[in-house]
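Quick one: sequence plus magnesium ion SMILES, need C-alpha coordinates.
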Amino acid sequence: MTAAHAAQLIVDRVSVRYPGTAHAALHDVSLTIQPESLVVALGPSGCGKTTLLNLVAGFIKPTSGHITLDGQPVDGPGAERGVVFQDDALLPWLNVLDNVAFGLQLRGLDRREREVRARQVLQQVDLQGYAGRRVWELSGGMRQRVGLARALAADPRVLLMDEPFGALDAFIREQMQELLLRIWRETGKRILLITHDIEEAVFLATDLVLMSPGPGRIVERLSLDFGQRYAAGESARSIKSDPQFIATREHVLARVFAHRQPHTSGA
Amino acid sequence: MSAELTLGEHDFAAPERVQDEAPQSRRPLPIGVLTILGVLALWWGITATGLIQPLFLPSPQAVLAKLWLVSTKGYMDATLWQHLGASGLRIVTALLAAVLLAVPVGVAIGLSRVARGVLDPLIELYRPIPPLAYLPLVVIWFGIGELSKVLLIYLAIFAPIAIATATGVRNVDQTRIRAALSFGATRWQLIRHVILPSALPDILTGIRIGLGTGWSTLVAAELVAATRGLGFMVQSAAQFLVTDVVVLGILVIALIAFALELGLRALQRRLIPWQGRA
Ligand SMILES: Nc1ncnc2c1ncn2[C@@H]1O[C@H](COP(=O)(O)OP(=O)(O)OP(=O)(O)O)[C@@H](O)[C@H]1O
Ligand SMILES: [Mg+2]
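Reply:
Sure thing.
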Protein backbone atom coordinates (compact mmCIF):
# COMPACT_ATOMS: atom_id res chain seq x y z
CA MET A 1 0.00 0.00 0.00
CA THR A 2 2.56 2.58 1.05
CA ALA A 3 4.80 3.67 -1.74
CA ALA A 4 7.61 4.79 0.54
CA HIS A 5 9.59 6.54 -2.17
CA ALA A 6 6.68 8.80 -3.02
CA ALA A 7 5.18 9.27 0.45
CA GLN A 8 5.86 12.94 0.82
CA LEU A 9 4.33 16.28 0.13
CA ILE A 10 6.47 18.25 -2.24
CA VAL A 11 6.21 21.94 -3.02
CA ASP A 12 8.44 22.40 -6.03
CA ARG A 13 9.67 25.89 -7.00
CA VAL A 14 6.32 27.47 -6.57
CA SER A 15 5.57 31.16 -7.20
CA VAL A 16 2.33 33.03 -6.70
CA ARG A 17 1.53 36.51 -7.88
CA TYR A 18 -1.88 37.94 -7.09
CA PRO A 19 -3.29 40.05 -9.90
CA GLY A 20 -2.47 43.73 -9.56
CA THR A 21 0.30 43.43 -6.95
CA ALA A 22 3.89 44.62 -7.29
CA HIS A 23 5.66 41.83 -5.41
CA ALA A 24 5.06 38.13 -5.85
CA ALA A 25 3.32 36.81 -2.73
CA LEU A 26 5.57 33.75 -2.99
CA HIS A 27 8.73 33.48 -5.06
CA ASP A 28 10.38 30.18 -5.92
CA VAL A 29 9.39 28.34 -2.77
CA SER A 30 10.35 24.70 -2.37
CA LEU A 31 9.44 22.53 0.58
CA THR A 32 9.21 18.85 1.36
CA ILE A 33 7.09 17.41 4.09
CA GLN A 34 8.35 13.97 5.06
CA PRO A 35 6.24 11.32 6.77
CA GLU A 36 5.75 11.96 10.49
CA SER A 37 7.23 15.44 10.29
CA LEU A 38 5.72 18.58 11.71
CA VAL A 39 6.70 21.47 9.49
CA VAL A 40 6.16 24.94 10.88
CA ALA A 41 6.28 28.00 8.62
CA LEU A 42 7.16 31.12 10.59
CA GLY A 43 7.43 34.68 9.41
CA PRO A 44 6.16 38.22 9.76
CA SER A 45 2.78 39.31 8.49
CA GLY A 46 2.52 39.38 4.72
CA CYS A 47 5.35 36.97 3.99
CA GLY A 48 3.01 34.57 2.24
CA LYS A 49 2.35 31.96 4.94
CA THR A 50 -1.37 31.77 4.29
CA THR A 51 -0.71 31.79 0.57
CA LEU A 52 1.58 28.78 1.00
CA LEU A 53 -1.00 26.90 3.03
CA ASN A 54 -3.82 27.76 0.63
CA LEU A 55 -1.68 26.43 -2.21
CA VAL A 56 -1.12 23.12 -0.48
CA ALA A 57 -4.79 22.97 0.47
CA GLY A 58 -5.67 23.57 -3.18
CA PHE A 59 -7.70 26.72 -2.56
CA ILE A 60 -5.48 28.68 -4.94
CA LYS A 61 -3.29 27.64 -7.87
CA PRO A 62 0.38 28.52 -8.28
CA THR A 63 1.45 30.93 -11.01
CA SER A 64 4.36 28.58 -11.64
CA GLY A 65 5.71 25.43 -10.03
CA HIS A 66 4.11 22.18 -8.88
CA ILE A 67 2.77 20.59 -5.74
CA THR A 68 2.49 16.84 -5.34
CA LEU A 69 1.21 14.72 -2.48
CA ASP A 70 2.50 11.15 -2.45
CA GLY A 71 3.19 11.38 -6.15
CA GLN A 72 -0.21 12.81 -7.09
CA PRO A 73 -0.38 16.41 -8.35
CA VAL A 74 -2.39 18.71 -6.10
CA ASP A 75 -5.10 20.27 -8.22
CA GLY A 76 -7.79 21.79 -6.03
CA PRO A 77 -9.00 20.99 -2.51
CA GLY A 78 -9.36 17.37 -1.47
CA ALA A 79 -10.20 15.22 1.52
CA GLU A 80 -6.68 13.78 1.76
CA ARG A 81 -5.55 17.20 2.99
CA GLY A 82 -7.35 18.26 6.17
CA VAL A 83 -7.47 21.96 7.02
CA VAL A 84 -7.83 23.63 10.41
CA PHE A 85 -8.77 27.30 10.10
CA GLN A 86 -7.80 30.19 12.33
CA ASP A 87 -11.43 31.26 12.85
CA ASP A 88 -12.61 27.65 13.31
CA ALA A 89 -15.10 27.85 10.37
CA LEU A 90 -17.50 25.55 12.20
CA LEU A 91 -21.13 25.30 11.11
CA PRO A 92 -23.31 26.80 13.86
CA TRP A 93 -26.47 24.98 12.75
CA LEU A 94 -24.81 21.65 13.57
CA ASN A 95 -23.95 20.46 17.06
CA VAL A 96 -20.42 19.46 18.02
CA LEU A 97 -20.80 15.83 16.98
CA ASP A 98 -22.32 16.68 13.59
CA ASN A 99 -19.62 19.26 12.97
CA VAL A 100 -16.95 16.67 13.63
CA ALA A 101 -18.78 14.19 11.40
CA PHE A 102 -19.30 16.76 8.63
CA GLY A 103 -16.51 15.50 6.37
CA LEU A 104 -17.74 11.92 6.75
CA GLN A 105 -21.28 13.02 5.93
CA LEU A 106 -20.07 14.63 2.72
CA ARG A 107 -18.25 11.41 1.93
CA GLY A 108 -21.58 9.57 2.20
CA LEU A 109 -21.05 7.50 5.37
CA ASP A 110 -24.29 6.58 7.12
CA ARG A 111 -25.16 8.25 10.38
CA ARG A 112 -24.24 5.42 12.76
CA GLU A 113 -20.85 4.88 11.22
CA ARG A 114 -19.88 8.54 11.20
CA GLU A 115 -21.06 9.13 14.75
CA VAL A 116 -18.95 6.27 16.05
CA ARG A 117 -15.93 7.76 14.32
CA ALA A 118 -16.75 11.31 15.46
CA ARG A 119 -17.09 10.23 19.10
CA GLN A 120 -13.75 8.51 18.87
CA VAL A 121 -12.06 11.69 17.60
CA LEU A 122 -13.84 13.87 20.16
CA GLN A 123 -12.25 11.69 22.82
CA GLN A 124 -8.85 12.30 21.22
CA VAL A 125 -9.25 16.05 21.68
CA ASP A 126 -10.68 15.68 25.21
CA LEU A 127 -14.20 16.78 24.28
CA GLN A 128 -16.05 13.51 24.86
CA GLY A 129 -18.66 15.18 27.07
CA TYR A 130 -19.54 17.84 24.50
CA ALA A 131 -20.98 15.85 21.59
CA GLY A 132 -24.48 17.32 21.87
CA ARG A 133 -23.45 20.90 22.59
CA ARG A 134 -24.03 23.83 20.27
CA VAL A 135 -20.76 25.06 18.86
CA TRP A 136 -21.57 28.68 19.70
CA GLU A 137 -21.79 27.74 23.36
CA LEU A 138 -18.14 26.68 23.42
CA SER A 139 -15.05 28.70 24.32
CA GLY A 140 -12.51 29.64 21.65
CA GLY A 141 -10.14 26.85 22.70
CA MET A 142 -12.87 24.24 22.59
CA ARG A 143 -14.03 25.42 19.18
CA GLN A 144 -10.48 25.08 17.88
CA ARG A 145 -10.41 21.54 19.23
CA VAL A 146 -13.68 20.80 17.44
CA GLY A 147 -12.11 22.18 14.26
CA LEU A 148 -9.10 19.93 14.77
CA ALA A 149 -11.36 16.94 15.47
CA ARG A 150 -13.37 17.67 12.33
CA ALA A 151 -10.21 17.62 10.22
CA LEU A 152 -8.91 14.46 11.94
CA ALA A 153 -12.20 12.59 11.60
CA ALA A 154 -11.83 12.46 7.83
CA ASP A 155 -8.44 10.79 8.38
CA PRO A 156 -6.45 13.01 6.00
CA ARG A 157 -2.91 12.20 4.96
CA VAL A 158 -1.71 15.70 5.81
CA LEU A 159 -3.02 18.19 8.33
CA LEU A 160 -2.78 21.87 7.34
CA MET A 161 -3.19 24.47 10.07
CA ASP A 162 -3.17 28.25 9.52
CA GLU A 163 -2.44 30.00 12.82
CA PRO A 164 -4.83 27.63 14.59
CA PHE A 165 -4.04 29.02 18.04
CA GLY A 166 -3.49 32.64 17.05
CA ALA A 167 -6.68 33.90 18.65
CA LEU A 168 -6.28 32.04 21.95
CA ASP A 169 -4.81 33.37 25.17
CA ALA A 170 -1.32 32.25 26.19
CA PHE A 171 -2.43 29.63 28.70
CA ILE A 172 -4.93 27.91 26.41
CA ARG A 173 -2.47 28.17 23.54
CA GLU A 174 0.12 26.13 25.47
CA GLN A 175 -2.50 23.51 26.25
CA MET A 176 -3.41 23.33 22.59
CA GLN A 177 0.22 22.97 21.55
CA GLU A 178 0.64 20.05 23.91
CA LEU A 179 -2.62 18.51 22.68
CA LEU A 180 -1.43 18.87 19.10
CA LEU A 181 1.88 17.16 19.87
CA ARG A 182 0.03 14.32 21.59
CA ILE A 183 -2.24 13.85 18.58
CA TRP A 184 0.69 14.10 16.23
CA ARG A 185 2.41 11.29 18.13
CA GLU A 186 -0.76 9.16 18.34
CA THR A 187 -1.78 9.50 14.69
CA GLY A 188 1.60 9.95 13.04
CA LYS A 189 0.09 12.53 10.68
CA ARG A 190 2.22 14.91 8.71
CA ILE A 191 1.44 18.44 9.73
CA LEU A 192 2.07 21.82 8.11
CA LEU A 193 1.44 24.54 10.65
CA ILE A 194 1.61 28.28 10.15
CA THR A 195 2.33 30.66 12.99
CA HIS A 196 3.90 33.97 13.82
CA ASP A 197 4.60 32.94 17.41
CA ILE A 198 8.30 32.17 17.68
CA GLU A 199 8.15 30.07 20.84
CA GLU A 200 5.29 28.03 19.42
CA ALA A 201 7.25 27.43 16.23
CA VAL A 202 10.40 26.32 18.04
CA PHE A 203 8.49 24.11 20.45
CA LEU A 204 6.39 22.29 17.84
CA ALA A 205 8.52 22.01 14.73
CA THR A 206 10.55 19.09 13.51
CA ASP A 207 11.29 21.30 10.53
CA LEU A 208 11.15 25.03 10.97
CA VAL A 209 10.88 27.16 7.86
CA LEU A 210 11.60 30.86 8.22
CA MET A 211 9.92 33.08 5.68
CA SER A 212 10.45 36.68 4.66
CA PRO A 213 8.25 39.08 2.70
CA GLY A 214 8.68 41.12 -0.46
CA PRO A 215 8.63 38.72 -2.30
CA GLY A 216 7.58 35.94 0.05
CA ARG A 217 10.31 33.34 0.22
CA ILE A 218 12.01 30.83 2.50
CA VAL A 219 15.18 32.29 4.03
CA GLU A 220 16.20 29.56 6.48
CA ARG A 221 15.40 25.98 7.46
CA LEU A 222 16.10 24.38 10.83
CA SER A 223 15.70 20.82 12.03
CA LEU A 224 14.53 20.73 15.64
CA ASP A 225 13.56 18.05 18.11
CA PHE A 226 11.79 19.79 21.01
CA GLY A 227 8.41 18.55 19.89
CA GLN A 228 9.74 15.03 19.62
CA ARG A 229 11.15 15.33 23.13
CA TYR A 230 7.72 16.35 24.39
CA ALA A 231 6.10 13.49 22.50
CA ALA A 232 8.65 11.14 24.09
CA GLY A 233 7.47 12.16 27.55
CA GLU A 234 9.54 15.14 28.66
CA SER A 235 7.51 17.94 30.23
CA ALA A 236 6.85 21.17 28.36
CA ARG A 237 8.23 23.20 31.27
CA SER A 238 11.54 21.40 31.31
CA ILE A 239 11.87 21.68 27.52
CA LYS A 240 11.08 25.38 27.44
CA SER A 241 13.54 26.15 30.22
CA ASP A 242 16.28 24.09 28.58
CA PRO A 243 19.15 26.45 27.63
CA GLN A 244 19.21 24.84 24.20
CA PHE A 245 15.57 25.74 23.66
CA ILE A 246 16.18 29.29 24.78
CA ALA A 247 19.22 29.63 22.54
CA THR A 248 17.27 28.33 19.54
CA ARG A 249 14.40 30.69 20.27
CA GLU A 250 16.80 33.65 20.47
CA HIS A 251 18.50 32.60 17.26
CA VAL A 252 15.18 32.41 15.42
CA LEU A 253 14.12 35.74 16.88
CA ALA A 254 17.34 37.34 15.65
CA ARG A 255 16.86 35.86 12.18
CA VAL A 256 13.29 37.07 11.95
CA PHE A 257 14.37 40.59 12.86
CA ALA A 258 17.38 40.51 10.57
CA HIS A 259 15.14 39.71 7.63
CA ARG A 260 12.59 42.27 8.57
CA GLN A 261 14.98 45.27 8.73
CA PRO A 262 15.45 46.03 5.00
CA HIS A 263 11.73 46.20 4.48
CA THR A 264 10.58 48.27 7.41
CA SER A 265 11.16 51.48 5.47
CA GLY A 266 9.07 50.23 2.57
CA ALA A 267 6.20 49.15 4.79
CA MET B 1 -46.54 35.23 26.65
CA SER B 2 -46.63 38.90 27.45
CA ALA B 3 -43.03 39.41 26.42
CA GLU B 4 -43.88 38.21 22.92
CA LEU B 5 -46.21 41.12 22.36
CA THR B 6 -43.60 43.84 22.34
CA LEU B 7 -42.19 44.56 18.95
CA GLY B 8 -39.06 46.10 20.37
CA GLU B 9 -37.87 43.15 22.42
CA HIS B 10 -35.73 42.04 19.49
CA ASP B 11 -33.15 44.60 20.54
CA PHE B 12 -32.56 43.10 23.95
CA ALA B 13 -31.11 39.80 25.01
CA ALA B 14 -34.48 38.81 26.42
CA PRO B 15 -34.33 35.00 26.07
CA GLU B 16 -31.21 34.82 28.23
CA ARG B 17 -32.85 36.52 31.17
CA VAL B 18 -36.20 34.78 31.22
CA GLN B 19 -35.01 32.08 33.59
CA ASP B 20 -33.77 34.18 36.45
CA GLU B 21 -36.65 36.60 36.32
CA ALA B 22 -39.59 36.82 38.68
CA PRO B 23 -42.76 34.86 37.81
CA GLN B 24 -44.53 36.17 34.74
CA SER B 25 -47.45 37.76 36.60
CA ARG B 26 -45.10 40.18 38.32
CA ARG B 27 -43.49 41.48 35.20
CA PRO B 28 -44.62 45.01 34.22
CA LEU B 29 -46.82 45.25 31.12
CA PRO B 30 -44.75 45.89 27.99
CA ILE B 31 -44.99 49.39 26.58
CA GLY B 32 -46.51 48.12 23.33
CA VAL B 33 -49.52 46.75 25.18
CA LEU B 34 -49.95 50.03 27.03
CA THR B 35 -49.93 51.93 23.74
CA ILE B 36 -52.67 49.73 22.32
CA LEU B 37 -54.74 50.04 25.47
CA GLY B 38 -54.30 53.81 25.28
CA VAL B 39 -55.55 53.97 21.69
CA LEU B 40 -58.53 51.78 22.61
CA ALA B 41 -59.39 54.05 25.54
CA LEU B 42 -59.14 57.14 23.33
CA TRP B 43 -61.34 55.50 20.70
CA TRP B 44 -63.91 54.57 23.32
CA GLY B 45 -63.77 58.04 24.89
CA ILE B 46 -64.30 59.89 21.62
CA THR B 47 -67.24 57.74 20.53
CA ALA B 48 -68.78 57.87 24.02
CA THR B 49 -69.11 61.65 23.81
CA GLY B 50 -71.45 61.18 20.84
CA LEU B 51 -69.77 64.02 18.93
CA ILE B 52 -68.88 61.75 16.05
CA GLN B 53 -71.56 59.87 14.17
CA PRO B 54 -71.17 56.05 14.13
CA LEU B 55 -71.19 56.28 10.34
CA PHE B 56 -67.75 57.88 10.55
CA LEU B 57 -66.40 56.10 13.60
CA PRO B 58 -68.38 53.32 15.28
CA SER B 59 -67.71 52.66 18.95
CA PRO B 60 -65.51 49.76 20.09
CA GLN B 61 -68.58 48.08 21.56
CA ALA B 62 -70.38 48.28 18.22
CA VAL B 63 -67.42 46.75 16.43
CA LEU B 64 -67.20 44.02 19.06
CA ALA B 65 -70.91 43.29 18.63
CA LYS B 66 -70.39 43.18 14.87
CA LEU B 67 -67.53 40.76 15.37
CA TRP B 68 -69.95 38.39 17.08
CA LEU B 69 -72.55 38.87 14.38
CA VAL B 70 -70.18 38.46 11.46
CA SER B 71 -68.51 35.42 12.96
CA THR B 72 -71.80 33.65 13.61
CA LYS B 73 -74.24 34.95 10.97
CA GLY B 74 -71.76 36.22 8.44
CA TYR B 75 -71.53 39.19 6.08
CA MET B 76 -72.05 38.99 2.32
CA ASP B 77 -72.98 35.31 2.40
CA ALA B 78 -69.90 34.22 4.35
CA THR B 79 -68.87 34.26 7.99
CA LEU B 80 -65.77 36.07 9.15
CA TRP B 81 -63.98 32.73 9.34
CA GLN B 82 -64.86 31.91 5.76
CA HIS B 83 -63.59 35.31 4.62
CA LEU B 84 -60.46 34.77 6.66
CA GLY B 85 -60.05 31.26 5.31
CA ALA B 86 -60.34 32.46 1.72
CA SER B 87 -57.72 35.15 2.26
CA GLY B 88 -55.51 32.78 4.22
CA LEU B 89 -55.62 30.14 1.50
CA ARG B 90 -54.63 32.70 -1.12
CA ILE B 91 -51.68 34.02 0.82
CA VAL B 92 -50.46 30.56 1.85
CA THR B 93 -50.65 29.32 -1.75
CA ALA B 94 -48.84 32.41 -2.99
CA LEU B 95 -46.24 32.10 -0.24
CA LEU B 96 -45.50 28.44 -0.92
CA ALA B 97 -45.20 29.06 -4.64
CA ALA B 98 -42.99 32.08 -4.02
CA VAL B 99 -40.65 30.25 -1.62
CA LEU B 100 -40.39 27.26 -3.95
CA LEU B 101 -39.36 29.49 -6.84
CA ALA B 102 -37.69 32.49 -5.25
CA VAL B 103 -35.17 30.55 -3.16
CA PRO B 104 -33.67 28.65 -6.11
CA VAL B 105 -33.73 31.85 -8.17
CA GLY B 106 -32.01 33.74 -5.34
CA VAL B 107 -29.38 31.03 -5.01
CA ALA B 108 -28.76 31.16 -8.76
CA ILE B 109 -28.44 34.95 -8.69
CA GLY B 110 -26.08 34.75 -5.73
CA LEU B 111 -23.87 32.08 -7.26
CA SER B 112 -23.78 32.68 -10.99
CA ARG B 113 -22.84 35.85 -12.78
CA VAL B 114 -24.93 34.80 -15.79
CA ALA B 115 -28.05 34.18 -13.69
CA ARG B 116 -27.55 37.52 -11.98
CA GLY B 117 -27.16 39.30 -15.30
CA VAL B 118 -30.36 37.79 -16.64
CA LEU B 119 -32.65 37.73 -13.60
CA ASP B 120 -31.55 40.68 -11.49
CA PRO B 121 -32.73 43.38 -13.94
CA LEU B 122 -36.07 41.60 -14.40
CA ILE B 123 -36.74 41.52 -10.67
CA GLU B 124 -35.51 45.05 -10.08
CA LEU B 125 -37.69 46.25 -12.94
CA TYR B 126 -41.02 44.90 -11.73
CA ARG B 127 -40.35 45.13 -7.98
CA PRO B 128 -40.92 48.90 -7.53
CA ILE B 129 -44.21 48.87 -9.50
CA PRO B 130 -47.22 49.02 -7.16
CA PRO B 131 -49.27 45.82 -7.58
CA LEU B 132 -52.39 47.88 -8.35
CA ALA B 133 -50.65 49.27 -11.42
CA TYR B 134 -50.14 45.89 -13.06
CA LEU B 135 -53.35 44.36 -11.68
CA PRO B 136 -55.35 45.21 -14.85
CA LEU B 137 -52.76 43.51 -17.00
CA VAL B 138 -52.83 40.40 -14.80
CA VAL B 139 -56.63 40.34 -15.15
CA ILE B 140 -56.47 40.73 -18.92
CA TRP B 141 -53.98 37.89 -19.16
CA PHE B 142 -55.24 35.48 -16.53
CA GLY B 143 -58.90 36.37 -16.08
CA ILE B 144 -60.77 37.16 -12.92
CA GLY B 145 -60.42 33.77 -11.25
CA GLU B 146 -58.38 32.65 -8.25
CA LEU B 147 -55.22 32.51 -10.37
CA SER B 148 -55.05 36.27 -10.85
CA LYS B 149 -55.44 36.98 -7.14
CA VAL B 150 -52.84 34.44 -6.08
CA LEU B 151 -50.51 35.59 -8.84
CA LEU B 152 -50.70 39.18 -7.68
CA ILE B 153 -49.79 38.23 -4.10
CA TYR B 154 -47.18 35.83 -5.40
CA LEU B 155 -45.45 38.58 -7.37
CA ALA B 156 -45.38 40.78 -4.29
CA ILE B 157 -43.77 38.03 -2.18
CA PHE B 158 -41.38 36.71 -4.81
CA ALA B 159 -39.07 39.71 -5.20
CA PRO B 160 -38.18 40.24 -1.51
CA ILE B 161 -37.43 36.54 -1.01
CA ALA B 162 -35.34 36.25 -4.17
CA ILE B 163 -33.36 39.39 -3.37
CA ALA B 164 -32.80 38.45 0.28
CA THR B 165 -31.74 34.92 -0.68
CA ALA B 166 -29.25 36.27 -3.23
CA THR B 167 -27.80 38.60 -0.59
CA GLY B 168 -27.50 35.76 1.90
CA VAL B 169 -25.82 33.53 -0.65
CA ARG B 170 -23.34 36.22 -1.65
CA ASN B 171 -22.43 36.83 2.00
CA VAL B 172 -21.68 33.22 2.90
CA ASP B 173 -18.50 33.00 4.94
CA GLN B 174 -15.74 31.96 2.52
CA THR B 175 -13.86 29.89 5.09
CA ARG B 176 -16.96 27.75 5.63
CA ILE B 177 -17.04 27.13 1.89
CA ARG B 178 -13.37 26.26 1.97
CA ALA B 179 -13.88 23.97 4.94
CA ALA B 180 -16.50 22.03 2.97
CA LEU B 181 -14.32 22.03 -0.15
CA SER B 182 -11.43 20.62 1.84
CA PHE B 183 -13.63 17.60 2.57
CA GLY B 184 -14.21 17.18 -1.14
CA ALA B 185 -17.71 18.66 -1.21
CA THR B 186 -19.47 18.68 -4.57
CA ARG B 187 -21.19 21.80 -5.83
CA TRP B 188 -24.58 20.44 -4.82
CA GLN B 189 -23.34 19.46 -1.33
CA LEU B 190 -21.93 22.94 -0.95
CA ILE B 191 -25.34 24.47 -1.67
CA ARG B 192 -27.24 21.98 0.46
CA HIS B 193 -24.95 21.85 3.50
CA VAL B 194 -23.26 25.25 3.65
CA ILE B 195 -24.85 27.88 1.43
CA LEU B 196 -28.54 27.32 2.18
CA PRO B 197 -28.14 27.05 5.97
CA SER B 198 -25.85 30.10 5.95
CA ALA B 199 -28.39 32.07 3.94
CA LEU B 200 -31.33 30.93 6.08
CA PRO B 201 -31.40 34.08 8.23
CA ASP B 202 -31.64 36.23 5.11
CA ILE B 203 -34.20 33.94 3.52
CA LEU B 204 -36.40 34.19 6.60
CA THR B 205 -36.03 37.96 6.62
CA GLY B 206 -37.06 37.95 2.96
CA ILE B 207 -40.11 35.86 3.81
CA ARG B 208 -41.00 38.27 6.60
CA ILE B 209 -40.80 41.27 4.31
CA GLY B 210 -42.53 39.37 1.50
CA LEU B 211 -45.41 38.30 3.70
CA GLY B 212 -45.84 41.90 4.79
CA THR B 213 -46.12 43.22 1.25
CA GLY B 214 -48.12 40.16 0.17
CA TRP B 215 -50.68 40.67 2.89
CA SER B 216 -51.13 44.31 1.99
CA THR B 217 -51.52 43.35 -1.67
CA LEU B 218 -54.33 41.03 -0.64
CA VAL B 219 -56.95 43.77 -0.46
CA ALA B 220 -56.04 44.86 -3.97
CA ALA B 221 -56.14 41.27 -5.18
CA GLU B 222 -59.59 40.74 -3.71
CA LEU B 223 -60.97 43.71 -5.62
CA VAL B 224 -60.94 41.38 -8.60
CA ALA B 225 -64.43 39.90 -8.55
CA ALA B 226 -63.95 38.04 -5.32
CA THR B 227 -66.92 36.68 -3.42
CA ARG B 228 -64.97 35.94 -0.28
CA GLY B 229 -61.96 37.28 1.56
CA LEU B 230 -61.14 39.94 4.11
CA GLY B 231 -60.30 42.48 1.42
CA PHE B 232 -63.56 41.78 -0.35
CA MET B 233 -65.45 42.08 2.95
CA VAL B 234 -63.99 45.51 3.71
CA GLN B 235 -64.48 46.63 0.14
CA SER B 236 -68.16 45.71 -0.10
CA ALA B 237 -68.91 47.00 3.40
CA ALA B 238 -67.45 50.35 2.33
CA GLN B 239 -69.73 50.47 -0.67
CA PHE B 240 -72.75 50.13 1.60
CA LEU B 241 -71.27 52.42 4.26
CA VAL B 242 -71.33 49.65 6.88
CA THR B 243 -68.54 51.35 8.77
CA ASP B 244 -68.39 48.92 11.68
CA VAL B 245 -67.67 46.01 9.34
CA VAL B 246 -65.04 48.13 7.62
CA VAL B 247 -63.34 48.85 10.95
CA LEU B 248 -63.70 45.23 12.00
CA GLY B 249 -62.13 44.04 8.74
CA ILE B 250 -59.25 46.48 9.06
CA LEU B 251 -58.59 45.36 12.62
CA VAL B 252 -58.62 41.68 11.66
CA ILE B 253 -56.25 42.38 8.75
CA ALA B 254 -53.91 44.26 11.08
CA LEU B 255 -54.06 41.54 13.71
CA ILE B 256 -53.23 38.81 11.22
CA ALA B 257 -50.28 40.81 9.91
CA PHE B 258 -49.06 41.29 13.46
CA ALA B 259 -49.46 37.59 14.26
CA LEU B 260 -47.57 36.65 11.08
CA GLU B 261 -44.73 38.97 12.06
CA LEU B 262 -44.51 37.55 15.58
CA GLY B 263 -44.77 34.00 14.32
CA LEU B 264 -41.95 34.53 11.87
CA ARG B 265 -39.78 36.13 14.50
CA ALA B 266 -40.36 33.17 16.79
CA LEU B 267 -39.53 30.87 13.89
CA GLN B 268 -36.38 32.86 13.24
CA ARG B 269 -35.30 32.53 16.86
CA ARG B 270 -36.02 28.83 16.84
CA LEU B 271 -34.33 28.04 13.53
CA ILE B 272 -31.36 30.37 13.97
CA PRO B 273 -30.54 30.40 17.67
CA TRP B 274 -26.92 31.22 16.90
CA GLN B 275 -27.74 34.54 15.26
CA GLY B 276 -25.60 37.28 16.76
CA ARG B 277 -23.51 34.72 18.62
CA ALA B 278 -21.47 32.96 15.98
N1 LIG C 1 -6.36 37.58 -2.42
C1 LIG C 1 -5.28 38.39 -2.50
N2 LIG C 1 -5.18 39.32 -3.45
C2 LIG C 1 -4.12 40.12 -3.55
N3 LIG C 1 -3.08 40.08 -2.71
C3 LIG C 1 -3.09 39.18 -1.72
C4 LIG C 1 -4.21 38.29 -1.55
N4 LIG C 1 -3.96 37.49 -0.47
C5 LIG C 1 -2.77 37.88 -0.01
N5 LIG C 1 -2.25 38.87 -0.74
C6 LIG C 1 -0.94 39.51 -0.54
O1 LIG C 1 0.03 38.51 -0.60
C7 LIG C 1 1.00 38.69 0.45
C8 LIG C 1 1.07 37.46 1.32
O2 LIG C 1 -0.18 37.32 2.00
P1 LIG C 1 -0.46 36.16 3.02
O3 LIG C 1 -1.88 36.29 3.46
O4 LIG C 1 -0.06 34.87 2.44
O5 LIG C 1 0.51 36.56 4.23
P2 LIG C 1 0.65 35.92 5.67
O6 LIG C 1 2.06 35.56 5.84
O7 LIG C 1 -0.34 34.86 5.86
O8 LIG C 1 0.32 37.14 6.62
P3 LIG C 1 -0.40 37.13 8.04
O9 LIG C 1 0.62 36.70 9.04
O10 LIG C 1 -0.78 38.57 8.24
O11 LIG C 1 -1.58 36.23 7.95
C9 LIG C 1 0.60 39.96 1.19
O12 LIG C 1 1.35 41.02 0.68
C10 LIG C 1 -0.85 40.13 0.83
O13 LIG C 1 -1.20 41.49 0.80
MG1 LIG D 1 -2.07 34.52 7.18
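Chain A has a mean pLDDT of 91. Residues 243-264 of chain A form the longest helix (22 residues).
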